[in-house]
Amino acid sequence: MPADTFRLVAFNARFRGKMNILRSSASKRRACIGALTSVLLGGCATLPSNGPTAHQIRKGAQAADAGIRFEIVDLTPDLVEATRRQDEELSSKVPALGPLARNSRVDQIGPGDVLSISVYEVGVALFSGSLPAAAGEGFDPSAHAQTIPVATVDSDGMITIPFVGRMKVAGLTPAQVEEAINRALRGKSQNPQTVVTIRQNVANSIYVSGELRRPGRFEISPSREHLLDAIAASGGSVNSAEDTIVRFTRDGTTVEERLAFIRAGTADDLMLAPGDHIELLKRPRTYTVFGAVQKASQVNFETGEVSLAEALARAGGPNDAAADPSAIYLFRLDGLPDGSIAGPPKVYRLNMLKPSSYLLAQRFRMRDKDVLYIANAAANQPSKLINVINQLFSPFVTARALSR
């Protein structure tokens, strides 16, 4: 074979070999890209997340095997007004203290009371013996008093008085006891006059306990104190009125009402009666915030009414780097005053990309134990994976750059 022909055949063979290598490298590159794409897609599903996306929430509402059925509704002007009317209706059905009102006396003596009894006599005294006579006269016309040692009403409502014996005083007023003692002493003392006062009024007392600065037992005066008077006399609640529940017990019936809802002079500011029990409990109204926010948290209302706009602001608003502002969800179990659930749970959706939504959020009231969720943007997971890959490979890239 001529030398030129031999060189041409050898060149063709080397060229075909290099082309096969290039084709093989391209195939490997395509395979690597495909594998990397599969890893990316698979990694997005396994990366950690602080909650579902809007698509996942919609899918969860439509799932046939969902453990709890819920309904997603968009906030509209008509819906906001309907929920406000429902809030007012529920507020009117909340148990109030007014129905417990009753008339009762606070001047009657009862077991445990401590009485002070003074007997005034003229002339010959029964309790003090013969009084000294004035000069030229047979008797002293001035009145003299004798105070009987403190008398405590026993469990049977009885007391013991010298020259009278045991007498029942429970259920009587001090004036009625005075008259009864005077009748019992007639014929034994010359024109006796008795004065009875209650030194310790146990029977006409109320009891205040719980989250107060000075809990204890308080006597009811004839001026008839009210509920708020007793709380003020106890130093007031140690917590805010919005976070305080008043548990009022009268005649075996207990009703709870939030302290902030009780106004002076209203039916709920009950006139106190003997034996009333008042207990103050800390029970703040709260809502919780999850999702694409700076920090998941439980937030107190702290005021009488909190709007959805205020709730979002207190939570710091949607996270610009992670949130989907068109997917703000409020999860709510619509409850009745008796604790039962009215209908299926509702999930209210607010689209903050619409300017009108901010006006709706100002009118929509939050309720106790609402759950506010700000959905993650759908692009978050690929971005997270890319960041992870960059963190994994950046040391190698840096090392290669330094080695050059």
UniProtKB/TrEMBL annotation:
Residues 205-278, 287-374 form the SLBB domain. It is found in: Cell outer membrane. Keywords: Cell outer membrane, Ion transport, Lipoprotein, Membrane, Palmitate, Polysaccharide transport, Porin, Signal, Sugar transport, Transmembrane, Transmembrane beta strand, Transport. It is a multi-pass membrane protein. Residues 108-198 form the Polysaccharide export protein N-terminal domain. Pfam families: Poly_export (PF02563), SLBB_2 (PF22461). Belongs to the BexD/CtrA/VexA family. PANTHER family: POLYSACCHARIDE EXPORT PROTEIN GFCE-RELATED. This is Polysaccharide export protein.
